[in-house]
Amino acid sequence: MRELAASTITDQVAEMCEKANIYLGEDVFTALKNALETEESPTGKEVLKQLIENVEIARNEQIPICQDTGFAVFFVEWGQDVHLTGGSLEEAINAGVKRGYDEGYLRKSIVKDPLFDRKNTGDNTPAVIYTDMVPGDKVKISFAPKGGGSENMSAVKMLKPSDGEEGFVDFVVNQVKTAGPNPCPPIVVGVGVGGTFDKVAVLSKKALFRPVGESNPNPRFAELEKKIKDKINDLGVGPQGFGGRTFALAVHIEDYPSHIASMAAAVNLNCHACRHLEIEL
Amino acid sequence: MEPKKIQAPLSDDDVMALKAGDTVLINGVIYTARDAAHKKLVELMDKGEDLPIDLQGQFIFYVGPTPAKPGQAIGSAGPTTSGRMDAYTPKMLEKGMKACIGKGLRSQAVKDALKEHKGLYLAATGGAGALLSKKIKKSEVVAYSELGPEAIHRLEVEDFPATVVNDAYGNDLYEEGAKQYAR
Fold first, then answer.
1. pLDDT tens digit string along A177-201?
2. Which sign, positive or negative, has the C-alpha torsion A85, A86, A90, A96?
């Protein structure tokens, strides 16, 4: 059995927190540059130019892309032949978040209790961590700093099977329409369909980790992603909501089998700063 | 259309000269406040007590920046979602605030108050925190330091870019812009 030290996880996580918040992935950067080519609105073009310049300033001067450096969200695929030594996975990740957000001059945006005192934890912990046990002896860690503005415009709905494809599409498009300029368009739309109430929300989050430009491997879902994206862009909301052709950079659907009585659906929105980073250990 | 250079603080005439859709470059001194600072300011107003800053003619920028690194005036500093300040904005306008900068939709009550008190709601590009930080030349905390990133900061800005969304005539760029490009 392969051994992996908790301190290695902490070191890697700290580095990921800093990197992801400063260097926007090439997938999203390319999508922004492509949008500038196709955008028809002069104000929309101006916004896209600012966003591209923003990415460059962030990279060149090591400034976070956005001041909302997010809730630290992790998906971990843990190979079942790997033995973690020297601490728990949760502790190791949180120690990495604490160090990364401190040393990287990132904003600490987490309050200890949601309802009463709302006192800041001061180190951006705890992270939100999902762990899957998988075959093999590798560990894959995916990280996304998730901004609050776009998260607030997300929703879960338990649709009826009779709502069908049309009802599903309407739910997604209406949710995005309601969000309007709030989630900092152009946005990436993470969608989940199937599973239970909780599962579908996680699917919609996972959809935001897929590189922009990649489609669902199932051609029917891939086609539906394109159809929903076109409908969203036809709303005319455009970059920052000032009017234009680019409201969504991408729509990603993740699916799961469903109960005979249900058709759970979820929409998780992300701003144009769709930051995500993956490493394998 | 070329952006218009404007100087903070604003007079009523300055406000009335701007329309939804205009892009501006703001110069001078502006102040920051988010949810927690607004709550404290409005509590003082309700008690009839003095505010830690004079709001007359001022801009309020809804921002919670990242910590500044040594040598930087401020960290990443883009706008936060304005709707969370809706409950407080009419009172801020009543106390003399002339313009607020954020991103996202405002309530009808805010739009009405902008008309009544001659005020502006502007949007800065959400998520362009690195770019906007370069337009902020100086930053100091002037009230509520205990709130950390939510403290009220006094900012000196040069050519800080923003777009008028809601003007004092009742126009709304979010509504008009989407209508123009909807298919």
1. 999 999 999 999 999 999 999 999 9
2. negative
State whether residue A49 sits within 8 Å of chain B by CB: no
Coil/strand/helix, residue A49: helix
Q: A15: domain range? A: 2-20+65-146
pLDDT at B73: 94
Indicate whether A48 belongs to any domain. Answer: no
Q: Say yes or no for a CB contact (<8 Å) between B83 and A182.
A: yes
* Neighboring chain A residues of B130 at a CB cutoff of 8 Å: 54-55, 57-58, 61, 63-66
Contact flag A61-B130 (C-beta cutoff 8 Å):
yes
The yes-or-no verdict on residue B37 having pLDDT over 80 is yes
> Could A63 and B130 be called an inter-chain contact, meaning their C-beta atoms sit closer than 8 Å?
yes
Task: Give tens-digit pLDDT for B147-181.
Answer: 888 899 999 999 999 999 999 999 999 999 999 99
Q: Which domain holds residue B157?
A: 4-181
Written as one letter, the residue type at A210 is R
- Disruptive mutation site among A109, A242, A271 for chain B (greatest number of B CBs within 10 Å): A242
Within A194-262, strands assigned E span 248-255
Q: Residue B164: beta bridge partners?
A: B122
Q: Is A19 on the interface with B (CB under 8 A)?
A: no
Distance in angstroms (rounded) separating the CA atoms of residues B14 and A110: 39
Q: How far apart are the CA of B5 and the nearest CA of chain A, in angstroms?
A: 17
Output the domain CATH number for residue B156: 3.20.130.10
Structure tokens at A27: 């997938």
- Please list, in sequence order, all residues whose beta carbon lies within 8 angstroms of the beta carbon of residue B45, skipping any fewer than 6 positions away: B51, B91, B95
Residues pairing with B53 in the sheet? none
Predicted model pTM:
0.94
State ipTM. 0.93
- Whether residue A230 lies within 8 A of chain B, CB to CB, comes out as no
Token pair 């301190």 is at which residue? A7
Residues A168 and A248 in one domain: yes
Length, in residues, of chain B: 183
Tokens of A238: 């455009």
- Find which of A153, A240, A274, A275 to mutate to test the B interface (most B CBs within 10 Å of its CB): A240
Amino acid (one-letter) located at B130:
A
- Smallest CA-to-CA distance from A66 within B119, B133, B129, B142 is with B129
B chain contacts of residue A176, beta-carbon cutoff 8 Å? none
